[in-house]
Amino acid sequence: MRVLYHLPLSPFARKVRLVLAERRLPFELRLEKVWERRPEYLELNPACTVPTLVEDSGLVVPDSAVICEYLEEAYPDMTLLGLNMPERVESRRLVKWFDEKFFAEVTRNLLWEKTMKQALRLGAPEAGALRAGYANLKQHLLYIGWLAEHRRWLAGENLSLADFAAAAQLSSLDFIGDVDWSVSPAAKDWYARMKSRPAFRAVLADRINGQAPPPHYADLDF
Amino acid sequence: MRVLYHLPLSPFARKVRLVLAERRLPFELRLEKVWERRPEYLELNPACTVPTLVEDSGLVVPDSAVICEYLEEAYPDMTLLGLNMPERVESRRLVKWFDEKFFAEVTRNLLWEKTMKQALRLGAPEAGALRAGYANLKQHLLYIGWLAEHRRWLAGENLSLADFAAAAQLSSLDFIGDVDWSVSPAAKDWYARMKSRPAFRAVLADRINGQAPPPHYADLDF
Ligand SMILES: N[C@@H](CCC(=O)N[C@@H](CS)C(=O)NCC(=O)O)C(=O)O
Ligand SMILES: N[C@@H](CCC(=O)N[C@@H](CS)C(=O)NCC(=O)O)C(=O)O
To answer: What are the residue boundaries of the GST N-terminal domain, all occurrences included (chains A, B) (predicted)?
Structure first.
């Protein structure tokens, strides 16, 4: 069975979980505490980040972006990038936007400060980081809302990897109750459509160390 | 004529310059001072980073990773990722390694502290960042050397995007005289092979604000 090494709140691992489910590729989740730097895991992924995918063939694919490009090439029955060049450029542009910019400006400031930093006993969340994170999140929600008002899906007419990249970041933050959806009704409506996809089911059923997310997290009519 | 918006020391812009030259795709370089946030440029690339490529057709392609994937698909006469899945995974893994990990651990600590930060009058370089940057650079050179001793090129038997991603980061640092090549003879030998490729010529001829790099920068027998 295909294996995905992950951490439950990693937005990059979530992106791959959603994409594998959307592609109907079954997989087994395995928890990898990257901070332990297990030698066996370092051999699979010298960067020692999650996610890493291991195919039945034994092929090891580290890094969420590398995994998503690999899946696009290895399982061409479905494209999540688009059928023509402008669509593919726009999907990939937005994937980078969410993986890099949204992550650096929002997720790292909120999720990292509130969870990982405490788990690693590196101290309390920094007020400045939280403030910046919430302010940036508002701007990003407005941008998502703007896209969703002008297009059917974030990158255009078709559902794409951009939608999963954005939803992955947001679902991690939503799990810790950090997303104020009232900021943008259009973003909220788009996220409701994402949540109601079968691919989202496993992510919505997540419990972490027995801890449940806030009630609206899994509610399709939040 | 194809246009590439760039900054001369941006390692991401350098990667694309090298790749366009390797693919023999002619282009015109245009300097973009991203910190000025020109409205016309923000329309091309809302993330307001360099590089951005504009094709003759008018197609706008922002972000070095998106550009490289685009070129691979739009000009399939040459592949820089490899012909089979394991090769493609390994090239992409290493591209991410250099774009993300090498950049964060080395280039940002040295190049950003020494050039951009001063240009933007954000203060003097921080001693801690420089110390970390040099220490990390040594480890990365050893890793590059290790790869180059076990393989013909960094990702395997064939020259790939991984070689250009690594060479781009190193050439920016070499321009400011920050690379101690004596750390790894194998890395130095690999970089000498990269420098002697025709695709490298324009980058080696760079002058920035009339300033020349150290003499060994363009020397093929450094
Ligand atoms: N570029 C990587 C980033 C993955 C990443 O940063 N994962 C985090 C968890 S969200 C991690 O494993 N961090 C551990 C570390 O950086 O040492 C990807 O897209 O997969
Ligand atoms: N993911 C982007 C990163 C590009 C990037 O960070 N470029 C820097 C120059 S090396 C930049 O434009 N920085 C301006 C900014 O971040 O505002 C890429 O690969 O093109």
So the answer is: 1-79
Q: Do A69 and B69 touch (CB under 8 A)?
A: yes
Task: Say how many Å lie between the first and final Cα of chain B, rounded.
Answer: 35
Domain boundaries, chain B: 85-198
- Which chain B residues have a beta carbon less than 8 Å from that of A60? 89
pTM over 0.90: yes
For the stretch B10-33, pLDDT in tens is 999 999 999 999 999 999 999 999
Pocket lined around ligand 1, Cβ cut-off 6 Å: A 7, 10-12, 34, 48-51, 63-65; B 96, 100
H-helix segments, chain B? 11-22, 39-44, 64-74, 85-96, 117-119, 127-150, 161-175, 185-195, 201-204
Total Cβ atoms within 10 A of residue A201 = 12
Is B85-198 in CATH node 3.40.50.11030? no
Best of B50, B93, B94, B99 to disrupt the A interface (most A CBs within 10 Å) is B93
Q: Which of A177, A155, A151 is nearest to A164 (CA)?
A: A155
**Whose CA is closest to B102, among B213, B203, B216, B187?**
B187
What per-residue confidence (pLDDT) applies to B208? 86
Judge contact between A71 and B88, C-beta under 8 A.
no
**CB distance B172 to ligand 2 below 6 Å:** no
